[in-house]
DNA sequence: TCTCTCACTTC
DNA sequence: TGAAGTGAGAG
């Protein structure tokens, strides 16, 4: 090994301090010796310095003084930094005050009254009503990423029976979770606030092998969309950023592969422009078919002649005739309309079309407004009890009296309320509370250049309401892995799995994460390994094996991986004071009231939920990742 | 209950 | 003009 102080040896990239900054400790320590190539050792072991290079710093006495001073200054600077809040995301996050308004609320409200059904197909379907939101209160200059995900609303499978949705059993294992990042992300607060944020490109599918980045759902299961606002200028920073999450209870829906409720079908047709062809306006196929059916029926009743001639005897609608002939469906139509004649609603519709048709959409819009106003009056009550009632009963579904004929059509998961365990563990929306706790610690991740998330501190112990739980399996949400599909859809994997045993004792929802690279059909385990989908379940199983106790009903091989976003700590009671979860959920009004509290410390910050009691509607919570 | 094709729509 | 988004309906 070289002697660092060999005179004249210039082979070590000489560093000769000259400017003041060169004499700081950092500058010196950054240079491994020898950094004074001109220094020579005297016979006494002291330094011999050429006169030309003498500098106050090079004087042994002065140097010691200077170094001591520099060290002291650096120490003071460090202490000062500890005392003052670091300029991190946590500090910056308090600078804005985002509020979100659901622009399409009136539509959602209208659908929700009958139990919103959302068609899912193998090739992916858009959501209707669309999820459109308007943001306010953002920092104009700061960059934000807006996201949306859809989580299971409860642990049940549903069936449509006797014109209403009923619980039919335990939920199927949850599909791989994906987070949809709005394609405009990241954008400045000014940009987001200048427009309505539309998530119309988000598609739903039941194809577990989907490679497009669509959101994968289980048919006949209830889901709740969630909207997230994240202040971050880079998607890679998402794991370390604060998530503000907004939940609008009226956007809850049941995924179906085929519509169950005729009213929902009709409302979709009436409101979705792409379904215009099925409207009773006289131009679409539905009109033609109905015309055809009626004419056929009339014709056969009156003449009993061949059905092929029926269209020719119709009301003279050339289009109708054309449609009939080209479709060559006379026989089918006759059969169809004779059958549906048993359906009073369809009879009514068919009868109406013979009259001058009012604008259906306008008619419903008026109805929307009326019902919406009615609901707003009832649900926006200033009475906290009203809020609580709404929360317990699933929002507006119980706003009508039992005598109200509409009540029979409402979206009522009948057995949920009586499920004691559900009430205890806070399953589903029926136990919505004004204050909600999430695990106080975020599992931390490093995103390596390959986009694989590695969790940091995965053995960290966190204290949750007096109980210590390992964060290995305790994660609020998985927002950790981003992937961009071939069509530009950004997704991140998030799969929540309740850790039942821990949850029961701590009263907090715990989740297990699964990270899906949608574009590649891969799922990344919480520990960074990449698996094909089947492995994602295996990984989840393994991770849960010591904690999960939820029985498997339908597919024993894959245990339920239900994420319970709405669990509350203490049964159905509403605490007067919420003791301070780092991550908290608040129920808000639809009046864009921001009720959240952001704490610097995810563990200890107090949270006063009392103000939120009067504001029920969208559910809103904040989660924070500390770096 | 699900999948596929069809005719129709919007953009 | 064609891609993409609709519900109907058959299987």
From TrEMBL:
GO aspect biological process, one term: cell fate specification
Residue stretches of biased makeup (Polar residues): 73-82, 323-351
UniProt region (Disordered), positions on chain: 73-96, 275-388
InterPro entries documented for this protein: p53-like_TF_DNA-bd_sf, T-box_DNA-bd, T-box_sf, TBX2_3_RD, TF_Brachyury, TF_T-box, TF_T-box_CS
Domain T-box: 102-280
One annotated GO molecular function: DNA-binding transcription factor activity, RNA polymerase II-specific
Entry keyword set: DNA-binding, Nucleus, Transcription, Transcription regulation
Any one annotated GO CC term: nucleus
PROSITE patterns: TBOX_1, TBOX_2, TBOX_3
Subcellular localization(s) per the UniProt record: Nucleus
Superkingdom assignment: Eukaryota
Amino acid composition bias (Basic and acidic residues), ranges on this chain: 363-388
Name by which UniProt lists this protein: T-box transcription factor 3b
């Amino acid at each position: 090994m070289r002697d660092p102080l060999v005179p004249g040896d210039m082979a070590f990239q000489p560093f000769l301090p000259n400017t003041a900054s060169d004499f700081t400790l950092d500058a010196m320590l950054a240079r491994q010796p020898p950094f004074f190539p001109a220094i020579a050792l005297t016979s006494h072991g002291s330094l011999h310095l050429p006169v030309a290079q003498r500098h106050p710093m090079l004087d042994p006495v002065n140097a010691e003084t200077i170094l001591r001073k520099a060290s002291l200054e650096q120490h003071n600077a460090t202490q000062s930094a500890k005392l003052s809040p670091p300029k991190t995301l946590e500090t910056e996050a308090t600078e804005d005050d985002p509020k979100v308004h659901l622009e399409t609320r009136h539509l959602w409200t209208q659908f929700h009254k009958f139990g919103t059904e959302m068609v899912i197909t193998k090739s992916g379907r858009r959501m209707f009503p669309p999820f459109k939101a308007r943001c306010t209160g953002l920092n104009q200059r700061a960059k934000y990423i807006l996201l949306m995900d859809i989580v299971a609303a409860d642990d049940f499978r549903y069936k449509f029976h006797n014109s209403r949705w009923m619980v039919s059993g335990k939920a199927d294992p949850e599909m791989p979770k994906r987070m949809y990042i709005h394609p405009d992300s990241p954008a400045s607060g000014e940009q987001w606030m200048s427009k309505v944020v539309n998530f119309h490109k988000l598609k739903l599918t039941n194809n577990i092998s989907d490679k497009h980045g669509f959101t994968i759902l289980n048919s006949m299961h209830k889901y709740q969309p969630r909207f997230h606002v994240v202040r971050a200028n880079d998607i890679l920073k998402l794991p370390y950023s604060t998530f503000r999450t907004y939940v609008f209870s009226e956007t809850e829906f049941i995924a179906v592969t085929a519509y169950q409720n005729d009213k929902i079908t009709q409302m979709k047709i009436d409101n979705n422009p792409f379904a215009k062809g099925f409207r009773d306006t006289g131009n679409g196929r539905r009109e033609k078919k109905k015309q055809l059916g009626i004419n056929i029926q009339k014709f056969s009743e009156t003449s009993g002649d061949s059905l092929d001639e029926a269209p020719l005897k119709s009301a003279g609608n050339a289009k109708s005739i054309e449609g009939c002939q080209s479709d060559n469906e006379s026989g089918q139509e006759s059969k169809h309309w004779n059958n549906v004649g048993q359906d009073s609603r369809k009879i009514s519709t068919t009868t109406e079309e013979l009259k001058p048709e009012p604008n259906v959409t306008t008619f419903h819009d008026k109805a929307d407004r009326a019902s919406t106003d009615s609901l707003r009056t009832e649900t926006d009550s200033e009475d906290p009890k009203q809020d609580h009632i709404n929360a317990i009963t699933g929002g507006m579904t119980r706003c009508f009296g039992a005598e109200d004929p509409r009540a029979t059509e409402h979206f009522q998961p009948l057995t949920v309320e009586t499920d004691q365990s559900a009430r205890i563990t806070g399953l589903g929306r029926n136990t919505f509370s004004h204050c909600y706790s999430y695990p106080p610690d975020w599992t931390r991740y490093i995103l390596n250049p390959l986009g694989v998330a590695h969790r940091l501190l995965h053995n960290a112990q966190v204290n949750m309401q007096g109980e210590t739980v390992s964060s290995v399996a305790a994660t609020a949400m998985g927002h950790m892995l981003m992937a961009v599909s071939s069509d530009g859809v950004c997704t991140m994997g998030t799969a929540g799995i309740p850790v039942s045993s821990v949850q029961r004792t701590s009263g907090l929802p715990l989740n297990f994460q699964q990270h899906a690279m949608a574009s590649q059909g891969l799922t990344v385990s919480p520990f960074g390994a990449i698996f094909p989908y089947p492995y994602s379940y295996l990984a989840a199983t393994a991770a849960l094996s010591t904690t999960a106790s939820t029985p498997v009903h339908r597919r024993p091989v894959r245990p339920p991986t239900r994420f319970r976003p709405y669990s509350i700590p203490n049964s159905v009671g509403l605490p007067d004071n919420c003791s301070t979860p780092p991550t908290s959920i608040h129920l808000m009004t639809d009046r864009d009231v921001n009720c959240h509290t952001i704490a610097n410390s995810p563990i200890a910050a107090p949270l006063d939920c009392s103000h939120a009691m009067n504001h029920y509607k969208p559910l809103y919570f904040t989660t924070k990742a500390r770096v």
